[in-house]
């Protein structure tokens, strides 16, 4: 395929929940990189009408979900709306707090071409780095680096792949939505190469000081920080990673063990250095219980109260 002949259309799907006005500038920048943008508000609990109106006045297609149904539901609604309106060749999925480098989409498409030219079936193109930190690689010493477990924000996906493997699993609600999608992509025989030169700026969560016995941990005169998630969010992380184990351990044992160790490391840090340790332990126990029972969707209200 020649460079001149390769002129695909790309639609961005941006999910939002209680967004700040920063989303307006993020989407404005995104419009410079792709032909089409749709923002899906996932039933925000705050009044975000002025923000969404500002997006509409800027020419952005905005969809409002009637209730908070989870990021997978918002992504799926955005993909369906984008395809109905514009019939794009590619979908790029984005979080409300993510921004792309100026040449991100161009670099991602070029990386797709390069991988395809070397015989690779490409299921998606992942960011090469998050906040300039390289993503974890699937294998060491690959000629074409594949991302181990691509975060959905910044992933460029051919529409034909969505037709083959389906959309995101809405029963997960939030967390591991991308993990499940990635494993289905690989199960269908596709690869997940990184886009060379594709850096995404993304907030991975609230940062808190690392503490031991109430004292800040300092190295070289600097307070160390940890990425902090609420106990309810830790519930979803725990429940859904164990659901991934049930689904995929028999076919992806080595990968799954590596992925589980990443969660163990995060939980050790939370327990050793983070606040609200008792609630985090309760979140883990409830998450494991619900994973074992096959509970899906939104956390039960009575459990959310225990973790708030």
Structure summary:
By secondary structure, the chain is an alpha/beta fold.
Describe this structure in words.
It is a single chain. The chain is of the alpha/beta class and 308 residues long. It has two domains: 10-201, Spore Coat Polysaccharide Biosynthesis Protein SpsA, Chain A (Alpha-Beta Complex); 207-307, no CATH class. The protein contains ten helices and 15 strands. It has helices at 22-31, 49-57, 71-86, 104-117, 159-165, 177-187, 231-248, 253-273, 277-293, 301-307; strands at residues 10-16, 36-41, 61-64, 90-95, 99-100, 126-130, 133-134, 156-158, 194-201, 206-209, 211-212, 215-216, 218-219, 222-223, 225-228. The protein has a five-stranded mixed sheet with strand order 3-2-1-4-8, sandwiched between helices. Strands 5-9-6-7 form a four-stranded mixed sheet. The protein has a two-stranded antiparallel ribbon with strand order 10-15. Helix 7 (231-248) runs antiparallel to helix 8 (253-273). The radius of gyration is 20 Å and the shape is globular. The termini are far apart. Residues 1-5 have low confidence and may be disordered.
């Amino acid at each position: 395929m020649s460079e001149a002949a390769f002129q695909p259309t790309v639609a961005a799907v941006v999910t939002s929940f209680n967004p700040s006005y920063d989303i307006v500038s993020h989407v404005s920048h995104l419009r410079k990189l792709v032909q089409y943008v749709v923002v899906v508000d996932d039933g925000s609990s705050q009044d975000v009408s002025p923000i969404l109106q500002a997006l509409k006045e800027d020419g952005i297609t905005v969809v409002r979900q009637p209730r908070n149904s989870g990021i997978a539901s918002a992504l799926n609604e955005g993909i369906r709306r984008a395809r109905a309106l514009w019939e794009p060749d590619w979908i790029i999925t984005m979080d409300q707090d993510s921004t792309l480098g100026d040449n991100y989409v161009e670099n991602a498409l070029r990386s797709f071409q390069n991988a395809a030219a070397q015989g690779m079936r490409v299921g998606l193109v992942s960011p090469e780095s998050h906040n300039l930190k390289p993503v974890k690689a699937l294998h060491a010493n690959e000629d074409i680096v594949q991302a181990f477990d691509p975060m959905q924000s910044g992933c460029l996906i051919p529409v034909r792949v969505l037709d083959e493997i389906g959309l995101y699993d809405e029963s997960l609600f939030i967390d591991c939505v991308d993990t499940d999608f990635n494993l289905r992509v690989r199960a269908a025989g596709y690869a997940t190469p990184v886009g060379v030169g594709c850096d995404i700026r993304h907030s991975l969560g609230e940062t808190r000081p690392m503490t031991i016995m109430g004292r800040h941990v300092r190295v070289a005169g600097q307070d160390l920080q940890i990425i902090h998630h609420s106990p309810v969010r830790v519930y979803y992380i725990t429940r859904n990673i164990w659901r991934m184990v049930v689904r995929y351990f028999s076919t992806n044992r080595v990968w799954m063990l590596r992925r589980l160790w990443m969660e163990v490391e995060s939980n050790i840090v939370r327990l050793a250095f983070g606040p609200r340790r008792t609630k985090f332990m309760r979140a883990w126990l409830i998450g494991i219980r619900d994973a074992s029972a096959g509970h899906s969707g939104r956390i039960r209200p009575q459990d959310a109260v225990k973790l708030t």
